[in-house]
TrEMBL record:
Gene3D superfamilies according to UniProt: 3.90.950.10
Source organism phylogeny: unclassified sequences, metagenomes, ecological metagenomes
The protein's required cofactors: a divalent metal cation
SUPFAM superfamilies listed in its UniProt record: ITPase-like
Protein name from the UniProt record: Unannotated protein
Species name: freshwater metagenome
Residues forming coiled coils: none
Amino acid sequence: MRLYLASTSPARLATLRAAGIEPVVVPSQVDEDAAVAAAELERGHVLEPAEMVLLLARAKAEAVIAPEIDGLVLGGDSAFVLDGVTYGKPHEPRIARDRWLTQRGRTGELFSGHWLMHVSGGDVINAVGEVAVAGVTFASDITDAELDAYIDSGEPLQVAGAFTIDSLGGPFIERIDGDPSTVIGVSLPTVRRLANKLGVFWPDLWNRDR
C-alpha cells in the first residue's frame, strides 16, 4: 500500500520518513483563502480553527486525485490559535516578529487537520478525516536578539504560527502538551487511526530500510 502525500512540506515528509514511510509526494495547488471564503459563505459563519484545517486538508487531498493514483492520499493543514485568534503563515518578517513578541512566554494551541482517502485508479473508495490539537508553550526568556536572528533565518515565515519544533525554532519551545508530531503538521497517531478506519494495517505502509 503506497501513501501519497499531498504536500511539499519538508517537515511532514521527514516525519513520515522517520516513521518508516517513504510517501509519493504529489504537490497540491489549492487557493486556501478562496477555499475558506467559499466555505464560510456557504455555511454562513466564520470557520472555527478545527473546521478550517480539516476543510483545507480535504481540499489538498482531493486536488491531487488522478487516474494513476492507487493507495492512500493524505492531505494536511495547520493553524495556530492564541487568545482566540487564528494564525497561519506570516510570510513577512514584520508580521512574524509581532507574533513572536505576542506569544513569547505564553501557551497557544496548534490545530492540525488530516484527510486520508483510499483511492483506486483515481476513484475515491473511502475517506476519513480528523483534527489533532496540541498545546505549545514558548520560553519566556527569549531575547529580542534571538528572535531577530530566528526571523532573519527565514524559517518562521512559511510555517503556521511562525515557529517549528523540529528545526531552528525547537530551542524556543518550553513544552508541548499532546502529540509532538501534531505541531510538525502530521500527527502520526492520528494518521495511524485513520488508516485503520480505512482497513489498512499500519505496518503495511512501512517501505523504508531501517
